[in-house]
Amino acid sequence: MSVRARGRAVVLLSGGLDSATTLALARDDGFECYALSVGYGQRHIAELDAAARVASALGAREHRVMRVDLAGIGGSALTDPRIAVPEAPTRGIPVTYVPARNTIMLALALAWTEVLGARDIFTGVNFVDFSGYPDCRPEFIEAFERLAARATKASTEGGGACRIHAPLIEWTKAQIIREGVRLGLDYGMTVSCYQADEQGRACGRCDACRIRRAGFQSAGIADPTRYQPR
After folding, report:
1. Is pLDDT above 80 for 130?
2. pLDDT tens, 58-105?
3. Counting beta carbons within 10 angstroms of the beta carbon of residue 48, is it exposed (0 to 12), middle (13 to 18) or buried (19 or more)?
C-alpha cells in the first residue's frame, strides 16, 4: 500500500517496544523519519544499541544519539546504581521515574525539528499500561505542544507550530503489539528492561518486563524477548 508523503518528522526512539512501534507508525503514515535517541546516563544502556537496530530496520533517514548527563542529577533508579530497581509493584510514582526526562527529550527533538525545517515530533509515551510517570499523561503532551508553539524562531515568524504526536498514549500494550506486528515490526530487536545486561537480555522481574510480558500474553503473540538465565 502506498503512503502519502507528509514531510519530515523527528521520532524519539529509546529502543523499547513503544518507541519502535511509534517509528513504524510514523513511517507508515508517510513521514520521512529522523530518529533521535538520548543517552542520559541510563543503566540499561543496551537500549541505545536496540534503537540503532530499529532505526536501521525501519529505514530512518538518520539516527542520532544525543548525550545529556541526567545521571549527574540523580534521583532515579535508572541513573543511580545505589537505588535498586523495584522488582515488585509499588504505590505511587516509582523510583524508576527520571526527573524531567520527557521534557528534556522533547526539547531536544524540538530543536532538531526546527533545524530540519520539520513540523512534527513523535513520542511513544503511553498512559494505559505504564508505570505511572507524570510526563506520560495527555495533559503533559498538550502542555508541551503549547510551549513549542511559542518557543522557536519558526513558530514566532509564521513558519507554523510544531505538532506533538503521541499515537500510543491511550492504547493498551496488547493493542500496541498487535499494531506493530501488523506493520512487520520485529520486537526481538527491542529492549524494554530497566536492568538489561550488556547483551540486551531482560531481567524478567522489573516493572517494564512485567508490563511487556503481560502485553504479549494479552495480545496472544509469542514473546520474542531474550531473558537472562536465572
Report:
1. no
2. 999 999 999 999 999 999 999 999 999 999 887 889 999 999 999 999
3. middle
DSSP summary character for residue 88: S
Which tens digits make up the pLDDT trace of 142-165? 999 999 999 888 888 877 789 999
Tell me the backbone φ, ψ of residue 105, rounded to 5 degrees: -65, -40
d(CA 22, CA 166): 8
What are the structural domain ranges in the chain?
Answer: 7-219
Q: How many Å apart are CA 185 and CA 38, to the nearest integer?
A: 22
CA distance 46 to 196: 7
3-state secondary structure of 49: helix
What dotted CATH number matches 7-219?
3.40.50.620
Q: What is the Cβ-side half-sphere exposure of residue 44, based on CA atoms within 13 angstroms?
A: 26
Query: Residue 50 in contact with residue 220, Cβ under 8 Å?
Result: no
Confidence of residue 2 (pLDDT cuts 50, 70, 90): very low
CA distances from 147 to 90, 123, 124 (A): 32, 16, 19
- Alpha carbon distance 229, 198 (integer Å): 14
The pTM score is 0.94
* Rounded distance between C-alpha atoms, residue 12 and residue 34, angstroms: 9
- In the DSSP assignment, the letter for residue 62 is E
